[in-house]
Batch of 3 targets.
Target 1
Amino acid sequence: MNEKKYDVIIIGAGIIGNSIGYELAQKGYKTLNIDKLGDSGAGSTAGSCAIVRLYYSSPEGVALAREGYYYWLNWRRYLRVTDPAGMAFYKNTGALVFKTSMNKYLEPVKSALESLGVGYLDLSPDQIKDYLPNPDLRSFYPQYTLNDPNFGKAADENVAGALFLPETGYVSDPKLSTHNVEIAARAVGADFMFNTEVTDVLVENGRAAGVEVAGGTKIFAPVVVNVSGPHSYLINRMAGVEDKMKIKTRALRVEVAHVPSPEGLDWENTGVITSDSDISIYTRPEVGNHFLIGSEEPKCDPLEYVDPDNYNTDFTDQNRTQAMRGAMRLPDMPIPNKNQGLVDLYDVTDDWYPIYDKSDLPGFYLAIGTSGNQYKNAPAVGAFMSELIQYCESGNDHDKTPFQYQTKYINHTLDIGFFSRNREINRNSSFSVIG
Ligand SMILES: Cc1cc2nc3c(=O)[nH]c(=O)nc-3n(C[C@H](O)[C@H](O)[C@H](O)COP(=O)(O)OP(=O)(O)OC[C@H]3O[C@@H](n4cnc5c(N)ncnc54)[C@H](O)[C@@H]3O)c2cc1C
């Protein structure tokens, strides 16, 4: 069989895998990203809503998102190439985030934003009307399933208010942005291999030694990085590290609804992103003058963990449920007869925060468990993962003395130990896509 040798093999060519490849290749490593699909970003990245927002339930989450945001603002200069397929771009919209008991009325978020100098407006319920078309500001908490008689019933009181964060937006095309990173990585010497499935992780002398791919070819490298998205637990099993991790990952099936704007409203060009935990949805303006509506995982909705290679890709009631929840807040929103949107997978950890770490197998690294909320952070993750790998490969014990990453755009030191595979479950998490 053919034998090839690299410094680093990265399993996965999604936005995070490619960002790690680009950063390592810039540092002079001979890298290879391997993906079983035919193109960069064709996995869960392609289905991403690509929202770039700064509110998270923890200060670390806010700091990483703040750092990631600047990469998107500086996208072309960061990549230093022009992709013949086109360049993705960041579109700023601002975000309206509702205050609820679930997010502690955003008090922890406000402190984290303030400590990083992120501006926001603190809005009364009445001021929300300046941002949404004809909203119904009554509280609809808690949420129920579509077939429950309480579905859509409003409480007597109004919502508590909201924050408006002007620095929020989305990236025009997440798959294209991942291709942009591939072109940038190739320009600094990275290799990519598509339509190639990793079937085993090679171990020699107690450390990672490369991968075997379908057909039996072995490709050697002293460092292997698992960035396989919703398949991450399967790759961890190949490497024999899954049962040694305190925090696990699983593939969660999710639906996103696409709903037209109310008549006469140019939401595509004037709309904001919303995160409304009172009705348990987030929304984003979408091409075609649509609303794109994702779920914030209310307690009543069952979480559907699936086999990432065998799950239902058809819409279920969940699509309509999310659309109808949107219409609770915006009664003018027309609900189409035919479900529209997409079905995709998140790679979810036990506390909905990602794992960016080494593993118990020397030379085998993890950038997984992105829990539906790490697209925005990908370039920053690429930067610190490349340094984490250098830190560990030069003999430091990241488990004992966690790597401290000095962020590039903001004056901040990020304790990468926060993302450890062996952390205690983060009880401050929203246990939802919000992180
Ligand atoms: C519906 C949806 C909406 C989202 N919205 C947002 C959002 O608004 N904002 C945000 O920040 N994040 C969002 N996310 C999350 C974000 O998209 C992900 O965190 C991010 O795309 C993960 O990138 P990745 O490179 O880790 O994984 P992926 O893009 O999943 O890439 C992993 C790759 O590994 C490959 N692979 C798997 N197994 C193998 C194997 N055995 N051999 C070879 N290749 C393999 C797959 O083919 C895949 O291409 C959303 C996700 C989804 C699904």
Note: DSSP finds nine helices and 24 strands in the chain.
Target 2
Amino acid sequence: MAKKILVIDGSPRVGKNTDQLCDAFMKGAQEAGHEVVKFRVAGKKINGCIHCAQCFKNGPCSQKDDMIPLYDEIEKADMIVLASPIYFWQITAQTKAVIDRMYALYVAGRFQRKDTAAIFVSGGDADCCDEAVSFYKNVIINRLHWNDKGMMVCPRTSREGFELAPHLEKAYEMGKNA
Ligand SMILES: Cc1cc2nc3c(=O)[nH]c(=O)nc-3n(C[C@H](O)[C@H](O)[C@H](O)COP(=O)(O)O)c2cc1C
């Protein structure tokens, strides 16, 4: 069945590793017949949640920034792909801001279960992605009960001899199997 897939590209760098992996995933998913859109955090302004509690009263989020159009995309999506570089052994602050702001949908009961997948990209060894992988497994899968459709890490981007191509292939296959 064709799905609407939203890829959240949590890298502030356009055209670099995470962004290219998102594109490879999208190519695979499009070829498999899915409708795919990418949301890049790059160039966007998405504040952290300020706990104003307006969403607890079933109101929309009080902050009028680039998260507003994204709420619509999140609600419409059957599947959400989280893609993030690793900064300080974690997902980027930009990615986390998007996730925290999803709380407005969660508390309003507008947060249905979705299919999901993740792509994490680190300059160092694969274990640099451990916290992000734990977050994906413990929060996205175990707490939100989203349906895991795949997770990949792309380590050692800062190391000599790093080649993105095999990881692009993996992301493409993940998209094909979305
Ligand atoms: C502020 C900052 C912190 C980083 N921290 C880590 C880290 O803790 N572990 C790691 O392996 N790489 C770390 N990196 C490297 C990035 O994960 C790596 O360069 C990655 O390829 C960036 O993704 P991009 O190429 O899509 O921009 C860090 C980079 C920046 C800018």
Note: The longest helix spans residues 17-31.
Target 3
Amino acid sequence: MVPVRLTGPRLAIREYHHTPGDVDALHALFSDPEVTRYLPFEPRDRETCADQIALYLEEAMADERDTYRLAVTRLTDADDSADATPIAHASLTLGKYQSAYLGYVLGRDVWGLGYAGEIAGLLCDLAFGHLGLHRLAARVDVDNVASAKVLTKLGFQLEGHVRHDLLKGGVWSDSYLYSLLADEWPGTGG
Ligand SMILES: CC(C)(COP(=O)(O)OP(=O)(O)OC[C@H]1O[C@@H](n2cnc3c(N)ncnc32)[C@H](O)[C@@H]1OP(=O)(O)O)[C@@H](O)C(=O)NCCC(=O)NCCS
């Protein structure tokens, strides 16, 4: 396994560590009902988050890795961000025909700073650069206006409205489907 390590102007993306610090950080993120509002799961307890990190590390060790679930930290002056506390979560789930879905989840204390755009941009670099993918897609709850703006700003195009895409707490919700192709991403020819 080659561990993922991406750096942007303000943020770094790395593999999770199975440490109390990373478990606490993921728990802080995934236990907040405001954060999970548009995600396909209910708030999670600490034990579930610890199990999740174990799963992410198993996925990372797979012979043909198709799932990247990664920790996002602030980039520090000392460049010690490999061990800095995660403030967000990022994911890439590979599918058929050189495609993947991307995702990002930020703690409420760092909303509104433009971080999601930087995270999604780094995931595009990974997907279209190192992984050589052709298509990236994202599904966004129709009410998640901030996330739709993040994708649109990066050049993602709206493909359609997916009806009853998610069933949560007995309630159906619809999503917008967005996509970006490799030749539309500036780093790979767009
Ligand atoms: C949605 C989310 C990713 C946005 O990340 P962020 O870093 O806070 O986004 P930004 O600061 O870049 O804001 C994006 C844009 O949405 C706007 N915005 C924020 N909240 C908004 C709201 N409730 N309604 C309308 N626009 C909103 C911002 O003003 C900004 O617009 P601008 O680029 O024109 O200035 C973040 O809030 C989050 O992680 N939420 C919980 C998990 C989640 O929903 N993940 C996405 C699943 S698809």
Note: The helical segments are 20-30, 33-36, 46-61, 115-130, 145-154.
